[in-house]
Automatic annotation (TrEMBL):
Modified residues (4-aspartylphosphate): 73
Origin: domain of life: Bacteria
Keyword Phosphoprotein attributed: yes
Domain named Response regulatory: residues: 24-137
The protein's name in its UniProt record: Response regulator
Family annotation (Pfam families): Response_reg (PF00072)
Gene3D superfamilies: 3.40.50.2300
This protein's UniProt keywords: Phosphoprotein
Length: 239
């Protein structure tokens, strides 16, 4: 993920709004749409950002370097982000700040139990909220005297990132898989839909999750999700 800041403001005035200046953030997030929002928030705050889209990639990153901040989505294609949080908490030297992240607010307790220093609830698009939630969990030796932003800035990820997420779900649904695949689809879509403020898609994903949890027939719920995904791919044509 590119860490050059396209919104940089030259000179001291620009730096004054970047309280994470000089810090590296590793974001572990499989949604392109959510990752794009975090990229914009990190760059606006002065941080360098790297991204992994699965546990395997994240572990490779962490073998190469140690970020100051680790932000881990709890639902990943190859397992639970809780496992990575536990591993990172136990590692020495420890990453300074480890944050769990999910579109499900009830996941906060699980993230904290795994050892995370805090939790970010999706959708996360407010620059002021992002800076406040991250800075309050940073150790004193990493805090700067640069002030938090006073801007009421809300970032808007590129719609093509949303389309990429829909294409990913369509590919997953086309593959043969078991119930765990549908669990992943439901979790993934809930997060993306909430980030994109797509209530219809979020409700369909929630319906699929309920059907899976209750042992109900899945054909209708799966078909509804697949149909909505295809509709959004038609509404967001590739360039």
């Amino acid at each position: 993920m590119d860490d050059a800041d396209p919104f940089a403001v030259p000179g001291p005035r620009g730096a004054s709004r970047k309280p994470l200046l000089g810090l590296t953030v590793l974001v572990v997030e499989d949604s392109n749409f959510a990752a794009e929002a975090l990229r914009m928030l990190c760059l606006r705050s002065g941080a360098r950002i790297r991204r992994a889209d699965c546990l395997r990639s994240a572990r490779h990153h962490l073998q190469v370097y140690r970020p100051a901040i680790l932000i881990v989505d709890l639902g990943l294609p190859d397992g639970s982000g809780l496992d990575l949080i536990e591993e990172s908490v136990a590692a020495r030297p420890r990453i300074a700040t480890i944050l769990g992240m999910s579109g499900d607010n009830f996941a906060e307790d699980s993230a904290i139990a795994a050892g995370a220093d805090g939790f970010l609830e999706k959708p996360l698009t407010s620059l002021a909220t992002f800076q406040k939630e991250v800075l309050r969990r940073l150790p004193a030796d990493l805090l700067t005297d640069l002030p938090l932003t006073t801007e009421e800035l809300v970032v808007h990820p590129d719609p093509l990132a949303f389309r990429d997420d829909m294409a990913h779900v369509a590919d997953v649904l086309n593959d043969e898989g078991d119930g765990r695949m549908l669990d992943y689809v439901a979790q993934f879509l809930r997060g993306v839909a909430r980030s994109a403020q797509d209530q219809v898609l979020a409700e369909a994903a929630e319906g699929l999750a309920r059907a899976r949890a209750g042992g109900a027939p899945l054909a209708s719920s799966t078909a509804r999700v697949a149909g909505l995904v295809q509709q959004r791919l038609r509404d967001h044509p590739a360039i």
